[in-house]
Amino acid sequence: MSKAVNTRASEPEPVKGPVDKAMEVLEALVETGGPHRLGEIARRTGLAKPTVHRHLRTLAEYGFAQPAEGGSYRAGPRLLGLAAAALHDSRDLALARPVLADLRRRTGLLAQYAVRHGEDAVLLALSEPAREYRMYARPGGRVPLHSSGTGLAMLAAMPADEVDTLLASAAPLTARTPHTPTDPAALRALLREAAGAGYAVDDEYEDLDVRSVAAPVTDAEGLVVGAIGISGLTFTLDEQSVRLFGPMVRAAARTVSAGLGGTAPAFRLVDGDTEEAEEAEGTTGTGEGEPA
């Protein structure tokens, strides 16, 4: 069994306030498979049904939730409008969308853009190829940083002390599949590989039979703002394909970074207590020697 990153004694969880509970209800409301019944939302949040009902009623009054058939609820028009407005004004997302479409056309694979929220990578946009088999992915979906290509790419470009703090404060890392790295040494080895290549590889860490390749996007200050990646079934994204498409993904991430005023990210090679910054070769955009 893999060793957990964090083995601290369990600490009492802070008492949830009304805002915390409302946010949990709202998050459960927009989960896949909606509309959702009150009992289902209560099970997902761990809150009592009367509490969930009270929050749903308030959210509905403000247009953030909407009653549906059979006593269920779905996202309301005001929530959808706010989400659309925020996404429309997102500069990195506007830059990423055409890059994702180009990656999808050139690789024939699912292309995606994700950002970090705490210990998770949150999918904001995707470009999905037309195939007889489809991979499950949707905007708003969350996956742990340690088990996703986009998450590993972001971690590899973050300062070592920030990664250390993140791992120290996180709950024990969970194994999403038998291949998920949960040991600190194994995780750091993956980050070193990503730093050396300029892109990270998720080799069935999140889903069995699914592989992904991703590279970080940085802004004008050199801070990691997200990651561009592609995903496919392992028989379509084999080792040879990874070597072929990896530089494409790296160049795509540089293109978005360039639009934000950034340059090729300085990857941090994390090894114990030492940190060595290695500047990725080439310039933003499609670098020399990379597949066009």
Subunit arrangement of the protein? single chain
Report low-confidence residues grouped into runs of 5 or more: 1-10, 270-292
Fraction of residues in helix? 25-40%
Describe the sheet with the most strands: 6 strands, antiparallel
Note the overall shape: globular
- Radius of gyration, Cα only, in angstroms? 20 Å
The DSSP helix count reads: 9
Residues in β-strands, percent? 15-25%
**Helix/strand/pairing class, anyone?**
alpha+beta
Please give the alpha-carbon distance between the first and last residues: 43 Å
Strand order of the largest sheet: 6-5-4-9-8-7
Tell me, rounded to a whole number, the average pLDDT: 81
Q: Give a count of the beta strands, DSSP E runs of length 2 or more.
A: 11
**H-E order:** HEHHEEHHEEEHHHEEEHEE
Q: Could you please describe the fold and organization of this structure?
A:
The protein has 292 residues and is an alpha+beta fold. The chain has helices spanning 18-29, 38-45, 49-61, 77-88, 91-107, 149-156, 160-169, 184-197, 239-259, and strands at 36-37, 65-67, 72-75, 110-117, 120-127, 142-144, 200-203, 210-218, 224-233, 266-271, 274-279. Strands 6-5-4-9-8-7 form a 6-stranded antiparallel sheet, with helices on both faces. Strands 1-3-2 form a 3-stranded antiparallel sheet. Residues 1-10 and 270-292 have low confidence and may be disordered.
